[in-house]
Known about the structure:
Layout: H1 12-17, E1 28-34, E2 40-42, E3 50-52, H2 54-67, E4 71-76, H3 96-108, E5 113-118, E6 132-133, E7 136-137, H4 139-156, E8 160-163, H5 170-180, E9 187-194, H6 201-207, H7 227-239, E10 243-247, H8 253-262, E11 267-271, H9 273-284, H10 290-304, E12 308-311, H11 314-319
Parallel strand pairs: 1-3, 1-4, 1-12, 4-5, 5-8, 8-9, 9-10, 10-11, 11-12
Antiparallel strand pairs: 2-3, 6-7
Helix pairs in contact: 2-3, 3-4, 4-5, 5-7
The chain binds ligand PBG and zinc ion.
Amino acid sequence: xxxxxxxxxxTAAIRDLVxxxxxxxxxxxxxxxxxxxxxxxxxxxxxxxxxxGVQATLKQVEADLKLGIRTALLFGVPEPAHKxxxxxxxxxxxxxxxxxxxALKQAFGQDLVVMTDVCLCAYTDTGHCxxxxxxxxxxxxxxxxxxxxxxxxxxxxxxxxxxxxxxxGRIKAMREALEVAGFTNTxxxxxxxxxxxxxxxxxxxxxDSSPKFGDRRSYQMDPRNARExxxxxxxxxxxGADALMVKPALPNLDLIWRLREQTLCPIAAYHTSSEYSxxxxxxxxxxxxxxxxxxxxxxAIRRAGADWIVTYAAREALQKHWI
Length: 323
Ligand code: PBG
Ligand code: ZN
């Protein structure tokens, strides 16, 4: 046999020499749920992740930075009393996320990249990602609110805003609103390909953002479709996005790959709450080896072409040297 592939698998050092994919702290983005009350609240369906008040978030981010995690993605979990039909608390300049962003920027400055999720679902009384007229989630009024939300986050000092709402035209509206308000350097990471379905369950418990009626299929994409996602993603770039995200990650490795081939911008993938929690649950039962399973998840996502991975496992993976 002239060709024996096992020659290059013989020792750990040789395997390292021929490894094609790296998984580095700089690739990982840690999600944070921000609550108005100080202290921490466990999230039962996201083991190891808590909702934190501003002070607890500062402590957590400080520890994350020591592990090498330099990017935080923030999700607001406002009081139920602050949910309303027009989602006004979402674009309140003195709201939960702007206050947290300011505190983070004051504490860590340019050492930290602050990203903020821009969506209305935690702030509407319906739990939908846009404002409603009866059973309809109306596009353009939602986009107007989302653009105001993005500006409020930019004003507070967010480096990158990340719209996850899936309304049409939001990237263009946000880019224009940011320009007009003078935030010409604020980045936009668009959740460009985002499928409707079962992958976001634990997140909705964490963020208290489940729809009170219907589902999200009139704005999130049909998981049967790939071309539709590519088309929307390319449109987002034209509208002014700086980077594109695919979500959920593992069911969409094809789309990560195709976007990587068809664009030149950074590609992010969201290893969602269900991708995380299913591993955690099986590990609790003793059925899977979570260290290796998480590592293989993250490697596959990197190999498909993602530069950045949003994952709830980031902190633990680095703490416990899973990667
Ligand atoms: C808000 C948002 C969601 C996620 C990120 N931003 C939930 C949803 O669309 O219902 C999901 C993240 C996860 O499951 O970890 N729109
Ligand atoms: Zn939403």
